[in-house]
Amino acid sequence: MIQVRELSKFYGKKAVVEKVNVNIHRGKITSFIGPNGAGKSTLLSMVSRLLDADTGEVLVDNDHVHKMKSNEFSKRVSILKQSNFMNVRLTIRELVSFGRFPYSRGKLNAEDIRIVEQAMDYMGLMDMQYEYMDELSGGQRQRAFIAMVIAQDTDYILLDEPLNNLDMKHSVQIMKILRRLVDDLGKTVVIVLHDINFASVYSDRIVALKNGRVVKDGQTEEIINSDALKQIYDMDIPIKRMNNCNICVYFNS
Amino acid sequence: MRNSTKMIILTVFAVIFCALYLFYGLNGSFDYALPRRGIKVIAMVLTGVAIAYSTVVFQTITHNRILTPSIMGLDSLYLLLQTVLIFFLGSSHITIVNRHVNFILSVSAMILFALILYRFLFKRGGQPIYFLLLVGIIVGTFFGSISTFLQVLIDPNEFLRVQDKMFASFNNVSGELVWWALGIVVLTFIVGWKSFNDLDVLSLGRDTAINLGVSYDRVVKTMLVISAVLISVSTALVGPITFFGLIVANLSYQFFKTYKHKVLIAGASVMSVIALVGGQWIVERVFTFSTTLSVIINFVGGVYFIYLLLKESRSS
């Protein structure tokens, strides 16, 4: 379990995240939702130690994030941010191999190579593994990065808006893969999402943020109802039940 | 062609040029000319390696392939120091005449300046790299302006001594200093060696590097200090020549097409040696000293820089 305790981040005097307390349960998909500027990405960055918190602490299975060695932490928690700038030209295989860096420090052994190939296979990248990253489409790039994170083989996988700029087909594909990671491999996935319908259909738990604070935290069914959504988004959002899923019809509300 | 083959070919070229420089037209003068040429070759190899190493590392931590470490303002500080010494103490003062004193003074001034700059910037937290570059540019321009101001006022004869220092030259390198410089460069390799793999990850960006367990701040600080030390040593040894690093670093990226810093740094170093030793040989034997190597380097480097700018703007 990842425990977030009284976590705050200030830019100047403005609190972007303020005294947030959240528990992230093992073996579940937890979605962070909320309006723009609610502090979702900032919270995720602090949990994954990309950003230093001003107050509060984060515990991963009862160990303090800041007391852990960076290398040890990277074997337990991985993070994928929304924009991934690269200064070098890499093939998919080279990028995915970087996922083994916490274990191999750059020298891959047979076991590492097996895991890298498994990760690429899992993401359906085997037949294009020698293609260069800068020649791929957005969906393929995103899959390559997720393959890297899978090769990193951590219990916890944090993703910051992985569906950004992806079309419906690729979004669904990625969400299904994440679901499989949780159901088949027992991983814990935390994901920042903008589309609440993806959160509704695929996640086990939802944490809703607004103005840097947690306004709702619970099972998906508890959050996806018109009352709770009104509190989060200040919108009247009717919910329709289709194919056993709750769908929020927010387009003309 | 495999990268190891490329490296062997480059190394063979480097050795050929060194041999050519050492033995061409020696006319049996083994006692007089050979040791002098030997010192010059070692100085060129050292400078080449120092500049290649520091530029590749600096470009990786700043995520920018058209920067050189000179942007930190170290060579401007060197010129300012030389100008101030000549202006106030005169060109016959011990700090100018005695090369050892001058070397130690220059190296310690530059390293001290870099450390103060880093200390001041890293205390603020956050992501100081771009702020560091900005401060470097401003401070560098400031140093440059003061130097120019003093050079305008200075006695014309003394100005010739200043002008001497403004361009890199391998013609008056002191034998003893070369060994000092060699020691320092070897030391930077020992310190940097185990971080070379971390640098590979750093080229994926800060967030990915931290995600993969690289102690980002520690690696960046170590590498900034290493590149400041290397620049200081090479500048104090032969004069400001950092622009040269831009050429060899980018040629190395283009030629080796890899992300592995061990290969990139080694490749850029060997290319520097070829360019410096080969270039100096041509200057001495073909142009018979009618021009200097740094003029040629700045000319070729300038053309290549414009090519890089055009290429980068096309690709984005």
TrEMBL record, chain A:
Coiled coil: none
Gene Ontology CC entries for this record: plasma membrane
Pfam families per UniProt: ABC_tran
Membrane topology: Peripheral membrane protein
PROSITE patterns, per database record: ABC_TRANSPORTER_1, ABC_TRANSPORTER_2
Record-linked InterPro entries: AAA+_ATPase, ABC_transporter-like_ATP-bd, ABC_transporter-like_CS, P-loop_NTPase, Siderophore_ABC-ATPase
Subcellular location: Cell membrane
Domain (ABC transporter): residue spans on this chain: 2-236
One GO-annotated biological process of the protein: iron ion transport
Highest taxon of the lineage: Bacteria
Keywords: ATP-binding, Cell membrane, Ion transport, Iron, Iron transport, Membrane, Nucleotide-binding, Transport
Gene Ontology molecular functions: ATP binding; ATP hydrolysis activity
Main location: membrane
Gene3D superfamilies xrefs: P-loop containing nucleotide triphosphate hydrolases
Record-linked PANTHER family: IRON(3+)-HYDROXAMATE IMPORT ATP-BINDING PROTEIN FHUC, PETROBACTIN IMPORT ATP-BINDING PROTEIN YCLP
The protein's name: Putative ABC transporter ATP-binding protein YclP
Encoding gene, per UniProt annotation: yclP
UniProtKB/TrEMBL annotation, chain B:
GO biological process, one term: siderophore-iron import into cell
Entries under CDD domains matching the protein: TM_ABC_iron-siderophores_like
Membrane topology: Multi-pass membrane protein
Family classification: Belongs to the binding-protein-dependent transport system permease family. FecCD subfamily.
Biological source species: Sporosarcina luteola
GO cellular component, as recorded: plasma membrane
Localisation per UniProt entry: Cell membrane
Annotated protein name in UniProt: Putative ABC transporter permease protein YclO
SUPFAM superfamilies: ABC transporter involved in vitamin B12 uptake, BtuC
